Amino acid sequence: MKISIKRDENFVEYEVEFIDATLLEVLSYIKSKLDNTLVFSSGCRSSVCGSCSMRVNEREVLACSYKVQDGDRVEPLKNVPLIRDLVVDMDKAYSFNAKAKAWLSTDVKEIELNHEDEKINEIQSDCILCGSCYSACPVYAVNGEFLGPFALTRVWKYVSDKRESEVQTKVNDIQVNGIWDCTLCNECTLVCPQNISSKADIEKLRMKSAQYGFMDPNLASFGGGFGFDGSPSF
Predict the structure, then answer these.
(1) Could you say which of 56, 88, 120 is where a domain stops?
(2) What confidence tens digit (pLDDT) does each residue in 146-193 have?
(3) Residue 138: Cβ within 10 Å count
(4) Averaged over 99-123, what is the pLDDT?
(5) Which domain holds residue 189?
(6) Residue-level pLDDT at 221
């Protein structure tokens, strides 16, 4: 079979003999047998570390779980700086976790969680920070300061935790370049290898924000012509 790998600005074609192989297996073969200059990232080989995230045929995948097909076109993640070949720099995307204060506050409430409490945000804990959601996000593509899918998913994880004592502070911090900037296109959900819906988490964060008096600034900008500010609409 033949696969093409984007290197710099061009695709380089490689021919390999594999059946039912993962992309990571094929990449490892190419590096060891055909072209030792090829660069890619890998780690656990079990779909839990997220380090081998890349794009195949314009879709985000984990190389360790994707099964290669003849004619596949492999390239690095989008919307993040390229280091070399299939390796990208995720530092800025990771920094949004800190910017959004996506952690449980130190001054937690002394509340014992039951099984139902734990279920509320159980799936959000499965995020492996692979960056697929940032690569697929059309908002992050045009606004590099958008907090982005996995950071906002993590905020929901802690905002929904009954032990969190600073919910309002966390809600305050996601109003700008955050939940209202999302278009709810659902692309992040479609490419998430852990089946996490950041779209659903952002919708829940919008509802939580409304409880603290926030609203979509895009609606407020319509103003008098539509009567949203209380002025006559005639």
Answers:
(1) 88
(2) 999 999 999 999 999 999 999 999 999 999 999 999 999 999 999 999
(3) 13
(4) 89
(5) 91-219
(6) 62
- E strand or H helix that includes residue 215: none
DSSP 76: P
Which pLDDT score is estimated for 228?
A: 44
Give the least confident one: 40-49, 64-73, 223-232.
223-232
Contact predicate 162/113, CB 8 Å: yes
With bands split at pLDDT 50, 70 and 90, how would you rate the model's confidence at 118? confident
Q: Compute φ and ψ for 75, nearest 5 degrees.
A: -150, 165
What percent of the chain is predicted at pLDDT more than 70? Answer: 94
Statement to judge: residues 22 and 98 lie in one domain: no
Residue 102's CB is within 10 A of a number of other CB atoms, namely 22
On whether both 103 and 45 belong to a single domain, the answer is no
Q: Where are the alpha helices (DSSP H) in the chain?
A: 23-29, 91-99, 115-120, 132-136, 138-142, 149-159, 167-172, 187-191, 198-211, 217-220
Q: Which of 135, 18, 150, 59 is nearest to 97 (CA)?
A: 150
3-state secondary structure of 112: coil
For residues 160 and 203, what is the distance between their CA atoms, to the nearest angstrom? 13
d(CA 162, CA 118): 10
27 C-beta neighbours (distance < 10 Å), count: 28
Beta carbons within 10 angstroms of residue 43's beta carbon: 13
110 and 37, same structural domain? Answer: no
**Residue type, position 23, single letter:** L
For residue 62, the cross-strand partners are 53
CB 50 within 8 A of CB 128: yes
> Considering only CA atoms, which of 187, 50, 169 is closest in space to residue 100?
169
Distance of CA 232 to the CA centre of its chain: 43
